[in-house]
Design brief:
The protein is mainly α and 457 residues long. The protein folds into three domains: 139 residues, no CATH class; 83 residues, no CATH class; 115 residues, no CATH class. It has 21 helices and no strands. InterPro entries: DUF445.
């Protein structure tokens, strides 16, 4: 309670400072929307307030009635009417005491009785902030505890219910449509330049942080060991042979164009033909002979190169420099940007098309997930555990913020209007306390008087 008292005192000092500074008005309070709600009476509140006034008149009328009965009974008793007058007077007298006591108790909740500042009266307006603190602590201890949250969520059975709901095709369609809308909205809000910068920076940072030489070397070593590179060699040799067959004149012109100017033309022509035949022969032999020496030399070169990529310091350093130069080129960054643009357009188009493969797969996955969650206890338990852990994390991490929302909101309410609104909502039931106090007091007084007479006789 000491902590609560200090917190209330701090709130009161803050409110006093705001008032002195001229900012303590309704619109300057935190939670202004809630504060306005607490200073405004709705038609329903007005109707409840009329009900409270009617019950007050009834309870007061009953008090007046027993007072009149008491006066008449005492007059009859003094006039010698008989023993009955004493019983009636005793019952009426106790009824008046009970009615006045309960009137005082009910009134003391909302205001000072008869305007007299009696201690421990006007409890709601004077203790409003302390009540808000107590309410916040009560909610935090009894509703935001880990055990309570887990127990309540476990009783709900979210996994099975969610699974049964998702297993319905109409519901899966609805979730798919909502997810598509959210995805399109997110991609629309994101600026391409920002995403491209982030993606480019992430790729560059990841590439610079990891050496690629050993990885490439291991991959190349495996490819050569499995003979996977031979298909590439076959493709290159076949294309080279076909190209030479189709471009004989271009090869000979290139050879003749590189010859010295002082050599005769027919010599250049002979040299060109010889060079072309040798190239064509070499390509043909490479194509038709799997055991060609050049193929073996290429295998040895690739094997040595794969080994150097993994163990040779100079080779690895050259690969890293080459990697940095390639990543730093504008063409590569433009390629990353164009790749994001293409991916974004593809995703948006797929999200908009109800029959796209993306939406069909999402719908099928939701239906499958719903069926498994509805039927398999293991999946239900896993989903329930996720939900419980998430809820517990929220309430345990942000418990102070949640309870502070309650206390700060209550502190922002205007005391007078808060009192009126609370009275309008519970005041009618409280007037029954006055009525019951009158009746019970009368019966108690009658019983006490009867016992007293009996013992006195």
């Amino acid at each position: 309670m000491c902590g609560i008292t200090k917190r209330v005192e701090r709130m009161e000092r803050t409110k006093a400072a705001e008032k002195d500074a001229g900012i303590g008005g309704q619109h300057a309070r935190p939670g202004g929307a809630v504060n306005r709600a607490m200073t405004t009476f709705s038609p329903a509140d007005e109707e409840k307030q009329r009900g409270v006034r009617q019950m007050k008149l009834t309870a007061t009328g009953l008090l007046v009635f027993v007072a009149v009965v008491y006066v008449l009974a005492k007059w009859a008793q003094n006039s010698g009417a008989g023993p009955w007058a004493g019983y009636v007077a005793a019952a009426a007298e106790a009824g008046m005491v009970g009615a006045l006591a309960d009137w005082f108790a009910v009134t003391a909740l909302f205001r000072h009785p008869l305007g007299i500042p009696i201690p421990h009266t006007a409890i709601i307006p004077t203790k409003k902030d302390q009540l808000g603190v107590s309410l916040g602590e009560f909610v935090g201890e009894n509703f935001l505890s880990e055990d309570v949250v887990r127990q309540r969520l476990r009783a709900v059975g979210i996994g099975s219910r969610l699974g049964a709901w998702l297993a319905v095709p109409e519901h899966a369609d609805r979730v798919t449509a909502e997810l598509s809308t959210a995805l399109r909205g997110a991609l629309t809000v994101l600026r391409d330049s920002d995403v491209q910068a982030v993606v480019g920076e992430a790729i560059t940072r990841r590439a610079n942080a990891q050496e690629i030489g050993p990885g490439i070397g291991k991959m190349l070593e495996k490819v050569v060991a499995d003979g996977g590179h031979k298909r590439v060699v076959d493709l290159v040799v076949n294309r080279a042979h076909d190209w030479l067959v189709l471009h004989r004149d271009e090869v000979m012109d290139a050879v003749e164009g590189g010859a010295p100017g002082w050599t005769p033309k027919f010599v250049d022509r002979k040299v060109g033909e010889r060079v072309y035949r040798e190239l064509l022969r070499f390509a043909t032999e490479m194509r038709d002979m799997p055991g060609h020496p050049a193929r073996g030399a290429l295998d040895r070169f690739l094997t040595d190169f794969a080994s150097d990529l993994q163990s040779d310091t100079d080779t690895r350093a050259r690969i890293e420099r080459l990697k940095g130069e390639v990543l730093g080129r504008g063409e590569v960054q433009d390629l990353i940007a164009s790749a994001w643009t293409a991916v974004r357009s593809m995703i948006v188009a797929a999200a908009e098309d109800e029959r796209s493969e993306l939406r069909l797969r999402v719908r099928a996955s939701l239906l499958s997930l719903g069926s498994r969650m509805a039927a398999e206890r293991k999946v239900q338990n896993k989903v329930d555990k996720w939900v419980e852990d998430a809820a517990v994390y929220v309430v345990t991490t942000y418990r102070k913020e949640i309870t502070s929302l309650i206390t700060d909101t209550v502190a922002s309410w205007d005391a007078e209007h808060t009192t009126k609104k609370i009275e309008a909502n519970i005041g009618r039931d409280l007037q029954f306390i006055r009525i019951n106090g009158t009746v019970v007091g009368s019966l108690a007084g009658l019983l006490i008087y009867t016992v007293s007479r009996a013992l006195g006789a």
